[in-house]
Fold:
Amino acid sequence: MSAAVLEIERLPGCGAMIRGLDVRVASDAAVDAIRQAVFDRGVVFLEGQQLTPENQIGFARRLGPIVVNRYFPKTERWPEIAKVEKTEAQTSNIGGGWHTDHSYDAAPAMGSVLLAIETPPAGGDTLFADMYAAYDALPDDMKATLKGLTARHASAHVFGEAGGYAKTDRPELAGYADTPEAVHPVVITHPGSGKKALYVNPGFTREILGVTAQESQTLLTFLYAHAVQPRFVTRFKWRPGSMAIWDNRCTWHCAMNDYHGHRRLMHRITLDGVPLS
Structure:
């Protein structure tokens, strides 16, 4: 299927759906169109992708350079693929709570390519929120307040030796000594779309710099509540073969943890990014 006839359906809230495409045989023009749709809409969904690990890696490489996740378990033969798994016996999931991946890195991940391998009979949906729309909807005085501000993003409180996962039944996701921090603008200009996006998130943003601790907390509390209004959010229901490709620089996501007693397995590939401005 060529880019000219690629069926891209804009979804309410956040993202777009692409129908009728097998990514194994996508043309270069179609891959370019997918990448631009991700840049413009934040997340793109496809259904019915029957991919081997080699297929998924090959497709992801056409979208951008792959970076190996430092924390998640790797698949047995393919280190490029992280296993996002919850077993029948586990109660804690991976990615619960609103966040954006790798904001603690100096060059945050561009995106993720997530493929559903095994899904529960019900539940396990993922929510995505549009940070372009969240920024655009801010009052003008708030936009003026945020202009030029930066925020510190960290990972130790989640993945470190005393990180949040250490207090759950997923201790294998904690205990790491390599826990980077980074400072990024609170509002970025997306390098692929040229649009402004809100770039803080509840999972990894620790404070806004250059203001008092109380001012930082007040601002972040307001922004976090503002950004997850239903008008900015799409809820995606997974089936085996479902794929989501999202841009971490202009979306948040949250994995629902409502399928206890069932296994859920996803294969995730992370795409490398660039410093933000």
Notes: DSSP finds six helices and 16 strands in the chain. The longest strand covers residues 111-118.
